[in-house]
Amino acid sequence: MAFITTGTLLSLAALAQARNNGVGKLPVMGYDTYNAFGCDYDGALATAQAKAMNETGLVALGYNTFILDDCYALKERDAQGFLQQNLTRFPGGLKKWTESINQYGVSGSAYSSNGYLTCGAYPGGYGHEMQDLETWRSWGWDGMVKYDNCYIPYDNVTMENEFGRFKRMADAIDDLAAKYNEKPFIYSLCQWGWENPMNWAPRISQAWRIDADITPFWTAIKTIINLQAASYLATGFYQHGDMDMLEVGNSGQGTPVGNMTLAEQRSHFTAWTLLKSHLLIGTDLRNATNETLSILGNKELIDINQDENEGAALAPFRVGFQDDFSDIEYNFTSPPPYWAGNSSYGAVFMIINYADEQREMGFNLTENWAVRAGRQYNVRDMWKHEHVGVAVRNWTVTLEAHDVAALLLTDVGPEPARKLADGELAPPCAYPFLAHQCTSPNGSFIYNGSITEWGF
Ligand SMILES: *[C@@H]1O[C@H](CO)[C@@H](O)[C@H](O)[C@H]1NC(C)=O
Ligand SMILES: *[C@@H]1O[C@H](CO)[C@@H](O)[C@H](O)[C@H]1NC(C)=O
Ligand SMILES: *[C@@H]1O[C@H](CO)[C@@H](O)[C@H](O)[C@H]1NC(C)=O
Ligand SMILES: *[C@@H]1O[C@H](CO)[C@@H](O)[C@H](O)[C@H]1NC(C)=O
Ligand SMILES: *[C@@H]1O[C@H](CO)[C@@H](O)[C@H](O)[C@H]1NC(C)=O
Ligand SMILES: *[C@@H]1O[C@H](CO)[C@@H](O)[C@H](O)[C@H]1NC(C)=O
Ligand SMILES: *[C@@H]1O[C@H](CO)[C@@H](O)[C@H](O)[C@H]1NC(C)=O
Ligand SMILES: *[C@@H]1O[C@H](CO)[C@@H](O)[C@H](O)[C@H]1NC(C)=O
Ligand SMILES: *[C@@H]1O[C@H](CO)[C@@H](O)[C@H](O)[C@H]1NC(C)=O
Ligand SMILES: *[C@@H]1O[C@H](CO)[C@@H](O)[C@H](O)[C@H]1NC(C)=O
Ligand SMILES: *[C@@H]1O[C@H](CO)[C@@H](O)[C@H](O)[C@H]1NC(C)=O
Ligand SMILES: *[C@@H]1O[C@H](CO)[C@@H](O)[C@H](O)[C@H]1NC(C)=O
């Protein structure tokens, strides 16, 4: 039994070093079997997904790892405690199956749980951490370990909270990498946001789920975006708030069968990419429509998700439907609609219309740090894939119910000089409310529409 001692605490520095070696810097892209198939899949069906990923160009876009989610093994370990292969599900075994996906440029990743059993009641990793890592390695898996939170031992057995229970696998991953002098597995916690993982998961892992399992319905998407609004600040390079596998493509199919509109799926994908979540496809790609592929294949959004120079998630800059900051309140029926941040390609804005009808939605350039007041910006629509205009002072979009705008703003110089309008006292200053502290060169304030001689 491994209790945390001073010695293992010191090895956190080594774990951080391993992470900083480049492993897990960016969110992981790939495929996971769970949303499409639950436990109802076999090797041939999984390989067909990898084949489709290659043929549709998704591998070239960066979707390059494959997680066999729950249920790939037999229900019992062997006499020596090793995971046993289901040779009916994977004829020829899992090493052979892994080679079948490797030919498409896709690598293997593991799923397990930190308890006695996985959530589907297959053998869990507790007490077998190193042994299972050796097994996965022997099957040729080298990508990520997705580690669930089911069938956990009593407190009086582990004498640990979530942190300690999940640290066991972190240590084993470290030991395995040291033993073979190989890059460590990326470690991705699937513990549904218990005990606020944003506060501790970055010490031992590169990603943590923020939520319970996603479902292919709009209500789930809104709930997850709202949760990420409370934890986006912890997201960065090597530490990713995982919003769960994608449900894009699961309208009319999937497990369960979903019903999101294309607008809802666009909003879903935009939020997942720009809030720097893993991008793990969860739909049967043999049935993927062109619309599904064009959402999953939005290269402009993927480039921002995988930006080598900017690890932070977009941040919300207004809350709810209100037009200013005067009523910042956490609102479950209306998560933040306005988000912005920076990227290598320009300032990035995301606006989501949660209303059930069309809305005009806009923002002022003075509202967000990622752009500068008094400048003008080229605006690129990353769903239309075209330049849509030049923003001076503000930008407005018309959005259908549950649709999204993903905008890239690039600076094209100072805003055009203009004459003051009738009754206008001075050019404005950047501030969302009254022009408090907006000062003319002679020291007088322009305050609430009148001039106040304040003086130096
Ligand atoms: C992967 O896709 C490319 C492009 O469609 C194709 O040329 C190549 O043969 C595919 N690879 C395999 C192993 O099928
Ligand atoms: C083994 O695979 C077969 C075929 O997919 C499946 O019917 C069976 O339930 C699997 N066994 C276990 C223990 O999952
Ligand atoms: C933990 O507590 C349970 C219930 O009191 C008890 O049956 C069990 O023996 C304890 N286990 C250990 C390892 O102390
Ligand atoms: C989608 O399905 C969910 C779950 O069955 C249901 O609650 C919701 O009303 C459906 N939405 C639409 C627009 O049909
Ligand atoms: C998806 O495609 C496969 C193979 O073409 C087919 O067997 C299956 O029924 C399709 N599923 C749906 C929901 O259309
Ligand atoms: C889907 O896209 C492909 C490739 O661009 C095209 O050949 C095909 O006609 C499209 N299918 C439909 C139903 O539009
Ligand atoms: C929350 O948002 C809904 C719209 O979805 C709005 O009707 C409601 O007034 C908001 N509640 C608060 C407390 O802002
Ligand atoms: C945005 O990111 C780019 C690329 O890292 C950087 O050059 C630029 O200075 C950043 N802009 C701001 C406002 O931080
Ligand atoms: C947006 O900016 C334009 C100038 O570019 C101005 O005429 C217009 O009144 C502004 N709209 C809002 C809502 O601030
Ligand atoms: C945007 O600027 C206009 C003045 O141009 C102002 O009336 C409006 O309140 C501002 N909106 C926000 C959200 O700051
Ligand atoms: C200071 O500047 C403001 C705005 O330019 C002007 O309206 C005001 O008359 C000036 N005050 C003095 C004392 O010159
Ligand atoms: C701003 O001026 C308006 C009238 O022009 C007045 O009703 C309002 O109370 C003023 N606000 C403040 C904060 O002084």
TrEMBL record:
InterPro entries associated with the record: Aldolase_TIM, GH, Glyco_hydro_27, Glyco_hydro_b, Melibiase_C
Protein's GO biological process: carbohydrate metabolic process
UniProt keyword annotation of Chloroplast present: no
Signal peptide: 1-18
Reaction equation(s) it catalyzes: Hydrolysis of terminal, non-reducing alpha-D-galactose residues in alpha-D-galactosides, including galactose oligosaccharides, galactomannans and galactolipids
Domain Alpha galactosidase C-terminal: 337-409
UniProt-listed CDD domains: GH27
Name by which UniProt lists this protein: Alpha-galactosidase
Molecular functions (GO terms): alpha-galactosidase activity
Keywords for this protein: Disulfide bond, Glycosidase, Hydrolase, Signal
Pfam families cross-referenced by the UniProt entry: Melibiase_2, Melibiase_C
Enzyme Commission number: 3.2.1.22
Organism: Anthostomella pinea
Family assignment from sequence similarity: Belongs to the glycosyl hydrolase 27 family.
